[in-house]
């Protein structure tokens, strides 16, 4: 294939001010991390709450959490993003709508939409993992805690959740990495995160393969480092004898 | 099937090789590939109205650039003595078009691709087929008359276009304090404008007329401002294939010389077009008239 490779392209001027293409990738990485971390905090809090709700004996509360999971897990992420970005603001009361669309900078309103969207979407997945973590524990523990006179809140806080979270660190890690990868949908509503900057570099410089190779390396390195961090955390918090595996 | 059509192609080629039109010299590159396979693969877009888009009654693309592409196919049939030349269509996007031309999937792409110096490192361009100016689409009541009125406003443009680059440079150099939104395609850019997120939409004027014609109330909108740059659209083909490039250029130039170009222009810019029967009402610019009179394969920056 007749392609003109040039790895020096990243150090070349973009023609805008005195930026070089590498600056775009750095700025993009910043947005990707900002979107993913904010979305993750949101997802972890909401997902844990929903996960607990799903395991409660109250049929209404667990039904509510189940409905949430089914709704958010079964609608494509991109469709959800377009709903949050294009549809929801139009349904707001007019002063709020104008504030969102015109007073906020376009980057901020896109950022808010994508954080809400990713947070809600990932919360559904976190919820399922918290639920399975809780259900993986022997039922006898709940019974024993009840026999000791602990109330429901205490049972979750002091018996079930500390163990459940330890068990689900590996699958949670993969959700954590997923949110970084999923944050690339933000490029479709004009937020200049890593993928958007990559596409822009490809378009402006006509060096598509170099741009996407660099983006691949950045995503890969980012996710590998996050995985290693999570593995350390898993080891650090491990309670000997609680769960097998993980060395 | 493939082999059959191949054999058919060669049989026809043999049958017709006594004709006067067949070039005597040895074919090479894309021309040889077309002759050997009896097939040419054309790249087209899905929503570059009215240049190359889907929306006619058949599943084949339609548009101004597409009609010119077909002129090239007609000329190739003559030149190669292949009256049964088969045409295959491949849909390309703004990201895929260059690699697909380079790796041989697409032989010729005519859509709304700007000829620029960066792209010339990767692909070759035919003589220009259209010339646009980059201008603004805005609500008639917005009070925006020109680029200077954009200070401190939200402005949308389509990601990866020359307009985006110009807009960002303008923002830095003239400290205009604009917030620039880069939407993923022209349709989404217009949605940002229509939904009040942006005060103006900067893009190639012909495409702005296309978006305006699609609007719910076309009369609410106006194209304003002095063009910030001119861009020449051209067909893309593989680099280092002078024989094929000449065939494409000759076919386009012949269409210009014979005046057929005017009919094609009228059909897409001054008459109702599919799918909604809209009329873009976009008279031929002086720049395009000049381009047709003096065809060039240079980019606008090089002129």
TrEMBL record, chain A:
Topology term for the membrane: Multi-pass membrane protein
Segments crossing the lipid bilayer: 20-53, 65-87, 107-127, 208-229
GO cellular component: ATP-binding cassette (ABC) transporter complex
Keywords per UniProt: Amino-acid transport, Cell membrane, Membrane, Transmembrane, Transmembrane helix, Transport
InterPro entries membership: AA_ABC_transptr_permease_3TM, ArtM/GltK/GlnP/TcyL/YhdX-like, MetI-like, MetI-like_sf
GO biological process, one term: amino acid transport
GO molecular-function term, one example from the UniProt record: transmembrane transporter activity
Cellular compartments annotated: Cell inner membrane; Cell membrane
Signal sequence interval, chain numbering: none
NCBIfam families linked: HEQRo_perm_3TM
PANTHER family the record matches: GLUTAMATE_ASPARTATE IMPORT PERMEASE PROTEIN GLTJ, MEMBRANE COMPONENT OF AMINO ACID ABC TRANSPORTER
Protein name in the entry: L-glutamate ABC transporter membrane protein /L-aspartate ABC transporter membrane protein
From TrEMBL, chain B:
Pfam families: SBP_bac_3
Intracellular or extracellular location(s): Periplasm
Entry-linked SMART domains: PBPb
Signal peptide: 1-23
Residues in Solute-binding protein family 3/N-terminal domain copies: 39-272
Keyword Cytoplasm: no
GO cellular component, one term: extracellular region
InterPro entries the record matches: Bact_solute-bind_prot3 (IPR051455), Solute-binding_3/MltF_N (IPR001638)
GO BP annotations listed: amino acid transport
UniProt keyword terms in alphabetical order: Amino-acid transport, Periplasm, Signal, Transport
Chief localization: periplasm
Database matches in NCBIfam families: PRK10797.1
Family: Belongs to the bacterial solute-binding protein 3 family.
Stated name of the protein: L-glutamate-binding protein /L-aspartate-binding protein
Species this chain originates from: Azotobacter chroococcum
């Amino acid at each position: 294939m007749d392609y003109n490779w040039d790895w020096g392209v990243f150090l070349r001027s973009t023609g805008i001010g005195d930026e070089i293409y590498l600056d775009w990738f750095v700025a993009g990485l910043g947005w990707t991390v900002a979107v993913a971390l904010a979305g993750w905090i949101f997802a972890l809090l909401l997902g844990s709450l929903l996960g607990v709700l799903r395991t409660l004996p109250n049929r209404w509360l667990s039904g509510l959490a189940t409905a949430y999971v089914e709704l958010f897990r079964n609608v494509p992420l991109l469709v959800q993003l377009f709903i949050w970005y294009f549809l929801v603001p139009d349904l707001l009361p007019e002063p709020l709508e104008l504030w969102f669309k015109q007073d906020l900078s376009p980057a901020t309103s896109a950022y808010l939409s994508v954080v809400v969207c990713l947070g809600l979407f990932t919360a559904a997945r976190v919820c399922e993992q918290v639920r399975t973590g809780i259900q993986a524990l022997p039922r006898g523990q709940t019974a024993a805690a009840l026999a000791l006179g602990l109330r429901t809140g205490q049972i979750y806080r002091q018996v079930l959740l500390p163990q459940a979270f330890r068990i689900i660190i590996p699958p949670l890690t993969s959700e954590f990495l997923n949110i970084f990868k999923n944050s690339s949908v933000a490029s479709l509503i004009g937020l200049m995160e890593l993928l958007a900057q990559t596409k822009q570099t490809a378009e402006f410089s006509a060096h598509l393969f170099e741009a996407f190779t660099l983006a691949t390396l950045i995503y890969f390195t980012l996710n590998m480092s996050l995985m290693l961090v999570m593995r350390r955390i898993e080891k650090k918090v491990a309670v000997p004898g609680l769960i097998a595996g993980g060395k | 099937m493939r082999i059959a059509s191949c054999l058919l192609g060669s049989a026809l080629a043999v049958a017709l090789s006594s004709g006067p039109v067949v070039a005597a010299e040895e074919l090479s590159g894309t021309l040889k590939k077309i002759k050997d396979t009896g097939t040419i693969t054309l790249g087209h877009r899905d929503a570059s109205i009215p240049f190359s888009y889907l929306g006619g009654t058949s599943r084949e693309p339609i548009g101004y650039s597409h009609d010119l592409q077909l002129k090239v196919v007609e000329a190739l049939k003559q030149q190669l003595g292949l009256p049964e030349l088969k045409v295959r269509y491949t849909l390309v996007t703004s990201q895929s078009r260059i690699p697909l031309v380079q790796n041989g999937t697409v032989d010729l792409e005519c859509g709304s691709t700007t000829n620029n110096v960066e792209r010339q490192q990767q692909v070759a361009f035919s003589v220009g087929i259209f010339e646009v100016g980059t201008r603004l689409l805005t609500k008639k009541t917005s009070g925006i008359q020109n680029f200077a009125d954009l200070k401190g406003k939200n402005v949308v443009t389509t990601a990866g276009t020359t307009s985006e680059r110009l807009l960002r440079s303008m923002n830095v150099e003239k400290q205009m304090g604009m917030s620039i939104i880069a939407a993923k395609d022209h349709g989404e850019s217009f949605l940002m404008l229509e939904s009040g997120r942006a005060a103006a939409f900067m893009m190639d004027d012909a495409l702005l007329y296309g978006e305006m014609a699609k609007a719910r109330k076309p009369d609410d909108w106006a194209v304003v401002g002095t063009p910030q740059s001119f861009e020449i659209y051209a067909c893309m083909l593989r680099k280092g294939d002078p024989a094929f490039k000449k065939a494409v250029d000759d076919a386009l130039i012949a269409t210009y010389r014979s005046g057929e170009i005017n009919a094609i222009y009228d059909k897409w810019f001054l008459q109702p077009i599919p799918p909604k029967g809209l009329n873009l009402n976009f008279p031929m610019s002086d720049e395009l008239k000049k381009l047709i009179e003096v065809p060039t394969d240079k980019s606008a920056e090089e002129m």
